[in-house]
Structure formats: C-alpha cells, structure tokens
Amino acid sequence: MTTTDPWNAGHYRERHAFVFEASADLAGEWLHPQPGERILDLGCGTGELTARIARTGARVTGVDASAAMIGAARNAFPEPGFEVMEAHHLTFRDDFDAVFSNAALHWMKPLEGVFPRVAAALKPGGRFVLEMGGAGNVQTTLDAVAHATRTLGLPDLPHPWVFPTTGELCTLLERAGLRAERTHDFVRPSLLSGEDGFRAWLAGFGGAWLSPLTAEERGAVLREAETYARPHLWNGTAWVSDYRRLRARAIKPN
C-alpha cells in the first residue's frame, strides 16, 4: 500500500459518477446477489454499488486501498461494512459467496498478485464478477498525454493501469484457480461532464500518472493533451471518452 492517497472522494463523486452509474447491471444481473449471501466488493470506492448490493439483503463488505474513499463510503452508507485494505494483501479465507469488482482492477498491478487472493477469499463454488478497462481503453487519452510529453520535450510517463484482452484476463483467472464462464468485451462511450471534462478526468484519474511533473509542466501537458484530444473526443457540446470495458464471471471450483 502506498503511503500517499491520491484520491479526492468528493471530486470523484461529483465529476465521475458515470463510473458506478453505468455498471448497475453488473451489480444486478451479472452478480445476481441473494439475501444472506456474503459478498466482498473489491475496490469499492465511495460505496454506491456496495450499498446497492446490500439492499438485496446480502451481507456486503467493501474494501478499498484509499482511506479517503472509505471515509466517504462510511459517511454516506452506514449499513455495509467498509475497510481500508489493499487488494494484494487480502487475508480472507473461504469467507465469501461472491467477490465483486467494478472499475478498480485495472489499478491493481500486477493482477497476478490479486487473483489468487480473490480465489482464497471465495468459498468453493463461489463466483467472481468483475468489470475493468479492457485493451484499448481510453486510448485517445493515452495517446494525447504521450503526444504532449513528446511535444514539450518531457520524459515519457508510463500510465498506471493494466488493460488486458479477454484472453489475457481468462489466463490470469485460470492460473489463480478460477474458471471464467462468461465474458463480455465492449465499447462504452462515456460522457465527461462539463466543458473541462477532459481535464477533470485527467485530474481525477491521472493525478498519480502526472505526479512526476512540476505544477507548470502538468498545466502545459494538460493544455497540449486537450488540444490533441479535442478532434477525437469533443462532439461539439461535450467530451465523450473512448471507454472499452471487459467483464467476466468466474467460478471457484468446488
């Protein structure tokens, strides 16, 4: 676990609510929670989907590496249990009927260290339901920042995420002892609110990515990246990012 917390829970909730709003069906039809089931929400963020799952009668525990996110979740939703916990350090053993994760796993490099912990947390026959960025996710934004740093003569900034293909994800699940029974790779154009939506996205999700830069360099990169991205992501009235998502439902054998 890092010693600094880059997340601003208020900014996340205000500017990036699409992250949890767009995945209501993942917490519903894909997860299909049942009353009395024990479910772990891995990378729960500010807790909106955790609370949605809890309303089905399931007993839900939400964990996130960000103390700021967990604090916001506890304040908004007192019923589910929330804990600050890093995915690579999960200590649960055969505790959960299901593990759920939305828009979080792509932050959890390396995934090879996470999936065995998920498998250990599941009861035999338990299910792992996930959505994460897939190969090609936010590619225009990645290209825009790379273009900006080159143009400004700055060092390359490797992005902090992992966006696997379906095949790569299934292989990682299988190596952890989980069998993928359903997958879905799809494009989801995502509205970024406000005329400053592109910059707000980078501020919210790319803070750690741009952290090696000085404040002056960050400002220059944001301006140059926005100029590059505008012909691709600005539709005349709003910013629409090129999200590509990867879902899976995997089972731990009995």
TrEMBL record:
Q: Tell me which Gene3D superfamilies the record gives.
A: Vaccinia Virus protein VP39
Q: Which residues form the Methyltransferase type domain?
A: 40-130
Which Gene Ontology molecular-function terms are recorded? Answer: S-adenosylmethionine-dependent methyltransferase activity
Pfam families, alphabetized: Methyltransf_11
Which intervals of the chain form a coiled coil?
A: none
Identification of the protein by name: Methyltransferase type 11 domain-containing protein
Q: What is the organism of origin for this protein?
A: Deinococcus phoenicis
